[in-house]
């Protein structure tokens, strides 16, 4: 992928890090909530029988599945942002290396031309 080496990569690493942290916090909060809901539900339903209990168990299972899916999506999104940040960092480093290489070649060419203008040196 060829990009203009003279233009810096546009990426806000600070905002990306904040987004990653927020997504990871959200996933963690969901996990903690699920654990708490699970414990509370088990305590509340110890002696509960009948169709309402069956409906509650079914609902709780759906909620658990949906929230687990959301937590996993938060983790995937955090990972994607981290990967994008790494790619932006790598691309910027590549552009800086190419700039330096360009400057080195220009410097060598100037020095070569200067030597040619100076002519041969007496020994």
Structural notes for this entry:
The chain is mainly alpha-helical. It has a single domain (13-117), classed as Orthogonal Bundle (Helix Hairpins). The protein contains 2 helices and no strands. It has helices spanning 13-44, 51-118. The longest helix has 68 residues, at 51-118. The mean pLDDT is 92.
What's a quick, concise take on this entry?
This protein starts with 12 loop residues before the first helix and ends in a 5-residue tail after the last helix. The protein has one domain (13-117): Helix Hairpins (Orthogonal Bundle).
DSSP strand (E) fraction? under 5%
Alpha carbon gap, first and last residue: 50 Å
Second rung of CATH, namely the architecture:
Orthogonal Bundle
Structural domains: how many: 1
The main pleated sheet reads as: none
Mean pLDDT, rounded to whole units?
92
Quickly give the structural class: mainly alpha
The Rg value, from CA coordinates, equals 30 Å
The CATH C-level name is Mainly Alpha
Which range best describes the helical content: under 10%, 10-25%, 25-40%, 40-55%, 55-70% or over 70%? Answer: over 70%
CATH fold annotation: Helix Hairpins
Q: How many helical stretches?
A: 2
What ranges have pLDDT less than 50 throughout 5 or more consecutive residues?
Answer: none
Number of E-state strands: 0
Shape: rod-shaped
In N-to-C order, the SSE pattern is HH
């Amino acid at each position: 992928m060829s990009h203009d080496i003279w233009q810096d990569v546009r990426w806000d690493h600070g905002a990306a890090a904040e987004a990653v942290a927020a997504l990871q916090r959200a996933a963690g909060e969901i996990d903690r909530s699920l654990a708490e809901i699970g414990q509370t539900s088990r305590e509340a339903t110890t002696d509960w029988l009948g169709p309402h209990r069956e409906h509650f168990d079914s609902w709780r299972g759906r909620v658990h599945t949906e929230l687990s899916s959301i937590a996993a999506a938060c983790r995937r999104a955090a990972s994607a942002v981290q990967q994008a940040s790494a790619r932006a960092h790598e691309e910027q480093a590549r552009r800086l290396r190419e700039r330096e290489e360009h400057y080195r070649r220009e410097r060598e060419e100037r020095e070569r031309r200067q030597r040619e203008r100076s002519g041969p040196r007496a020994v």
